[in-house]
UniProtKB/TrEMBL annotation:
Keywords: DNA-binding. Residues 5-59 form the HTH cro/C1-type domain. It comes from the Bacteria. GO terms for molecular function: DNA binding. This is Putative transcriptional regulator. Pfam families: HTH_3. It comes from Alkalibaculum bacchi. SMART domains: HTH_XRE. The keyword Secreted does not apply.
Length: 67
């Protein structure tokens, strides 16, 4: 699942650590999501979306997720 987290962080000039602290995870978790080695849980995706004041679908691309 692709995400726009890195792009949004850079636009807002925040570090991976700042985002991680705000949503209650480690910097490594944010890094892993950004490089697509880890898929955020629904709860974490929701927290990230709330942090950026956006809908989950605006941040995460679900087109490659099988149902």
């Amino acid at each position: 699942m692709k995400s726009k987290i890195a792009e949004l962080r850079k636009q807002r000039k925040i570090s991976q650590q700042e985002l991680a602290t705000a949503v209650g995870v480690t910097r490594q978790t944010i890094t892993s999501i950004e490089v697509e080695k880890y898929t955020a849980s629904l709860v974490l995706a929701y927290k990230i979306a709330r942090y950026f004041d956006m809908a989950i679908e605006e941040i995460f691309d679900f087109s490659d997720v099988e149902v």
